[in-house]
Specification:
single chain; alpha/beta; two-stranded antiparallel sheet; 14% strand
């Protein structure tokens, strides 16, 4: 690799060593001569997309919870109050939030008598496909192509990794799960086609090696870990050469990026060492790279996503926070209760509020991701400005396993496609698929006429008259 001062660096530059390879973040030196930031960003970058599923709906999707605004704010339009809602911790990023309430995921309903009771075991397959899963315990699974894969197939092929699928809980069960459904319906969000579920990665080490190990063999990566050496040690010469030709701001940006890579790798190594020490684990079945702490695990996954976006290794992530019907206890939530039984609140207000504590805990984890994306510059804008993040569930009220008034919000500005600071209440019986169809259009799939059970687009902005009224009332 040869760098010449005054020459621009290609966006796809990798620093390579025997133990791995490292893609670079977007630097000033990658802007072609005579091109400004705006033009370079438009030419080189597509909107990043993250879809995050939380199972079992939300307390605010119960009839009583809706009256208490436990999920969606009381006010529609702009400048709403998040304090009663499960999203209250995200108030610092209200300008980046687009909340859509009162949509349904009817494709997750039971269509025939044998399907009744199987809501937990087909919901995840429906979330990003908005299609009805074929009831089968065999290999003849069938649902739909998920929206993340529609985007990846169109705009992810020019990146080294078209998409990545991550999860927090164990999702590697084979065969049938319950109510006649194959476990794969419960175990993944991403479908490359109606018959092709994509596996999800639980171990941060595996994801790290996918992002930073493409230049070496498995043996070389194993040797690097055995020697307790960082990937940066293997590419030190090329890093030194690059530093010599970069201008001041680029050099600072490079150092910050390298520090973040080293710190992430160090955290993964510490977790592996602790889990290999023989100490009793809270998650004895988990791989060595998976921390017992839910928050620590999730933050590792968030950091991996941010680094991947910075380097344009991929533009598409799906992340499954938990598995339907999980009985995991989350001590960091402040509750010493298993998740699934707590979601069956029996319409008792006190029990609904306990489940609300789980909702607040899970949604509050998003603050870490939004802060990281906001702090990470990509050319002349932050990753949060350049991204569209979907957070939601295909279930509404978990006590009755329905799929009405499901929780969802979008974060980020999607390269100017989303306004933020907006709560939109959909008319009754609006499919969530309508929102996803509009999202896909804003991601660049303008020619897509329908998606799942969509009946048309759903405007993700205020009508002009309403926007003008909101503006005048704020003055």
């Amino acid at each position: 690799m040869n760098f010449l001062t005054g020459k621009h660096i290609h966006r796809r530059t990798f620093l390579r060593g025997m133990g791995g390879s490292l893609a670079l973040p977007f630097l000033d030196a990658m802007v072609p001569a005579g091109a400004g930031w705006a033009r370079a960003s438009a030419d080189l970058e597509q909107t990043r997309f993250i879809a995050i599923e939380i199972v079992h709906g939300a307390s605010g999707c119960t009839e009583w919870g809706a009256t208490q605004n436990l999920w969606s704010p009381a006010k529609t339009g702009r400048d709403f109050d998040l304090s009663p809602t499960a999203m209250k911790s995200l108030a610092p990023f209200q300008d980046y939030l687009t909340i859509v309430s009162n949509t349904d995921v009817r494709m997750a309903d039971a269509y025939t008598a044998p399907e009744i009771g199987g809501d937990h075991f087909r919901s995840s397959a429906t979330f990003l496909t908005q299609a009805h899963a074929k009831q089968t315990e065999g290999s003849d699974v069938f649902v739909g192509t998920s929206m993340d894969q529609l985007y990846a197939q169109r705009f992810g092929q020019e990146t080294p990794i078209p998409s990545m699928q991550l999860c927090i809980e164990n999702v590697d069960q084979a065969g049938g799960c319950a109510y006649g459904y194959a476990c794969v319906y419960t175990d993944t969000l991403s479908w490359a086609s109606p018959t092709e579920p994509l596996p999800m990665i639980r171990d941060p080490r595996v994801a790290f090696d996918m992002l930073f190990g493409a230049g070496g063999t498995p043996e070389a990566r194993a040797e690097r870990r055995r020697a307790n050496r960082s990937i940066l040690d293997w590419i030190a010469g090329e890093v030194a050469e690059l530093r010599m030709v970069l201008a001041g701001e680029d050099r600072v940006r490079l150092e910050q990026y390298l520090d973040n890579v080293r710190e992430l790798e160090r955290r993964i190594q510490m977790i592996e060492e602790q889990n290999a020490s023989g100490q009793e684990r809270a998650l004895p079945e988990a791989p060595a790279g998976v921390p017992d702490s839910f928050t620590e695990h999730l933050q590792l996954m968030f950091d991996l996503q941010v680094l991947a976006f910075q380097t344009d290794m991929t533009r598409v992530f799906t992340l499954k926070l938990s598995r339907d019907a999980t009985n995991r206890v989350y001590p960091e939530s402040g509750l010493d209760l298993p998740f699934h039984p707590t979601s069956h609140h029996g319409n008792n207000h006190e029990e609904i509020l306990k489940f609300q504590q789980f909702n607040e805990f899970f949604t509050g984890q998003m603050l870490y991701l939004l802060e990281k994306m906001d702090e990470s510059m990509d050319g002349d804008a932050s990753l949060l400005d350049r991204s569209m993040v979907l957070y939601g569930s295909p279930m509404g009220d978990p006590n009755v396993h329905n799929h009405r008034r499901v929780p969802m919000f979008l974060a980020g500005k999607a390269n100017g496609q989303l306004e933020g600071n907006l709560h939109l209440h959909a008319p009754d019986d609006t499919p969530m698929a309508n929102v996803m169809l509009t999202m896909l259009h804003k991601l660049g799939l303008d020619d897509l006429e329908d998606f799942g059970d969509s009946t048309g687009e759903f405007a993700l902005s205020l009508p002009a008259v309403a926007a003008a009224d909101a503006s005048s009332s704020s003055r």
